[in-house]
Description:
single chain; alpha+beta; binds flavin-adenine dinucleotide
Amino acid sequence: MSEIKVLDHGYLKMVESWGRGEAGETEAAIIEAARQSTQGSFRGWEQDAKLLRFMFTNKHLTPFEFCGMTIEIQAPIFVFREWHRHRTQSYNEMSARYAPLPDLNYLPNTNRVLLTQDKNKQAQGVTGSKRLTEHIADDWLENIAEFYQRAEDLYQYGLSRGIPKELARVVLPVGRYSRMRASANLRNWLSFLTLRMDPNAQWEIRQYANAVGEIVAQEFPRTWALFREAA
Ligand SMILES: Cc1cc2nc3c(=O)[nH]c(=O)nc-3n(C[C@H](O)[C@H](O)[C@H](O)COP(=O)(O)OP(=O)(O)OC[C@H]3O[C@@H](n4cnc5c(N)ncnc54)[C@H](O)[C@@H]3O)c2cc1C
């Protein structure tokens, strides 16, 4: 699968997925895990689609832990701070102690800045979203573009003067892009999507969650259909 572009410089791509079981069929590992109780095996989807539905709708979810996937993500640091709250995923992130972070910063567009969601209090401006104009948004965006440049100059200045990478990075803002791998089983990915595709989640992480959803839909189409049906 190729990279899915997210935000202005981000992406998400699948590294690996698993769960074909002994039968070698997409998602068959779920059925095989469930049939362990009776020492049975996968019988083909004509018969087993019904069992998959039964388990999903009745929340017999442990068999869904026998599928999973690892993805690589490039996202702003503030998105990773939200993402890392999902403690039951496994992570490994590039380290700015060892390699300078790429000079990529998230600059939202004007529409994103003006986007407000009536029911999502965290998406409102402090003085009320109605007072935020396009002019103010553009002015703010110009300012942060300059600020990003200033932060990058200071970062490079530190590195060029021999300041250790682990200290030179202290000037980098949370809009800076970083890169990580995240791995989890399918049940866990669905819990993540329930929380992060929700309109209450911040718009930026929602774009990443939607991209994770695209990959889940491709790799685990039967479970994805049940998940969407239940949403
Ligand atoms: C819209 C939104 C707004 C948020 N706002 C804030 C905020 O303002 N401030 C903030 O700090 N966080 C906030 N969060 C983060 C949120 O509180 C959770 O930390 C995050 O969603 C991860 O969920 P989780 O704990 O279910 O995931 P995981 O950490 O992956 O855990 C998965 C499940 O494992 C179990 N589990 C894991 N660890 C433990 C444990 N130590 N004890 C018992 N059970 C455990 C729980 O059943 C848990 O649901 C927000 C999240 C969302 C989606």
